[in-house]
Amino acid sequence: MEIKKVAFEKPVLNGEITVPGDKSISHRAVMLGSIAKGTTSISGFLDGEDCLRTIEIFRQLGVSIERNGTDVTVDSPGMDGWQQPADNLYAGNSGTTARLILGILAASRVTSVLTGDEYLSKRPMNRVALPLRSMGASIEGESDSSNLLPLTIKGGALTAIDYEMPIASAQIKSSILFAGLAADGETSVSEQTVSRDHTERMLEQFGVAIRKEGNKVSVKGGSVLSGTAVRVPGDISSAAFFMTAAAMVEGSSVTFKDVGLNPTRTGILDVLEAMGAKIDILEQSDGLGEPYGTVTISHNGLHATEISGELIPRLIDELPIIALLATQAQGVTVIRDAAELRVKETDRITAVTTELKKLGAQIEETEDGMIIHGPTALSGGVLSSYGDHRIGMMAGIAALVASGPISIEDPSCINISYPTFFNDLEKLAFPVDIQG
Fold first, then answer.
1. How far apart are CA 286 and CA 407, in angstroms?
2. pLDDT over threshold 80, residue 301
3. What range defines the domain where residue 245 resides?
4. 232 versus 145: which is more confidently predicted?
5. Are residues 302 and 352 both part of a single domain?
6. Model pTM?
């Protein structure tokens, strides 16, 4: 098994970095560029494994996609011009690819089989497949429940629905809206708590009229998408690991250039501020598309907080690294209303508590979250990534506050969202040892 050892001696993080492009936005840019007719140019694309899986799937459907580093050009004939794929469509480890593309394929004219790796094949798909089936989609699996990959999708005519979301999930919302682009009538999705809105913003960039009423968003079938230019900002979920590190390590201050500041994603900044970190934000963008700016995070002492309710969807991917941060904060930090963590790339509630306990953390697993006591001195140790990029990066950042080296099993999973993670860690913190 591949293992990477990371060790520091009294680290202090200082400097400026530009994190890779936002994973969620990169996926959607390729998807909508492939649905649209004409040419779409994407800058700042994340060339991580998950997003490359999305590119390969649309290439199999006959879309021309050229990549030059972080610049991507999509030339598409539109959905009506897609070809029948010769092989199965492989989503790898990417839940975003699988769940969003179900809605797209259901509205297309092709028949396809969607598959994934061993981890993705265990993740539930009915949360998307059931509402799509209510629109008339043909989605069939090998199991009786048809809840797991592989799934066979026979594209065809769909009917609009008015769907009330049982949980806050941008993946479910986006999949239904994508299907609604070709459905008969107006498709609406209502949320109790608004999830990330990258899909709605980007649909408008591609010329789709979006109707919003409170927490309800609607699209009309027959909407025509035209190729456009999409700028992908830095991924705040990736930046969160170094933001947390800067807040956690005494004397540290790190500046993040051109990082995404979408209000549905900035919960990490709210938590850092609530726990005592010093945050300076310089807005740099406005208008159509995604907001972004320059953010500086500095250490300023840490105290515990409670993270729950409407804040959870705005930082669901950052909760593993927040749990590590809480081990260094004064008091008891409580995370609740986060049961969604159990159906991510792994059960992140169990994974985080199990791995941090190996280092000596006082952390308790609850049904929908965690309870973390701090501050606690952490030791070194061997940590599993569970094949989950965010658990792997949490382990890497833990080395900054551990008394001994941290060895990470299967660190290559980090390439899913942050291929240059260890390079940036070395740039900012000057480790005494990074091996593997």
1. 42
2. yes
3. 3-21+234-435
4. 232
5. yes
6. 0.94
Q: Are residues 15 and 69 in the same domain?
A: no
Confidence class for position 161, pLDDT limits 50, 70, 90? very high
Strand pairing category for 138-141 and 111-115: unpaired
Active site residue 270: no
DSSP for 371-423? EEEE---B--EEEE-TT-HHHHHHHHHHTTTBSS-EEEESGGGGGGT-TTHHH
Q: What is the pLDDT of residue 131?
A: 97
Are residues 152 and 288 part of one domain? Answer: no
- pLDDT, position 286: 65
Query: Which domain CATH number covers 43?
Result: 3.65.10.10
Alpha helices in 107-146 (DSSP H): 126-134
Query: Are residues 140 and 12 both part of a single domain?
Result: no
Residue 280 banded pLDDT, cuts 50, 70, 90: very high
Residues 33 and 128 both lie in one domain: yes
CA end-to-end span of the chain, whole Å?
Answer: 11
Burial 132-164 (b: 16+ CB within 10 A, else e): beebbbebebeeeebebbbbbbebeebebbebe
Residue 227 and residue 303 in one domain: no
pLDDT at 382 over 80: yes
Tokens coding 86 = 């010769």
Residue in 22, 235, 317, 388 annotated catalytic: 317
- The reply to whether 48 and 14 lie within a common domain is no
Q: How far apart are CA 77 and CA 227, in angstroms?
A: 10
Q: What are 307-343's pLDDT values in tens digits?
A: 999 999 999 999 999 999 999 999 999 999 999 999 8
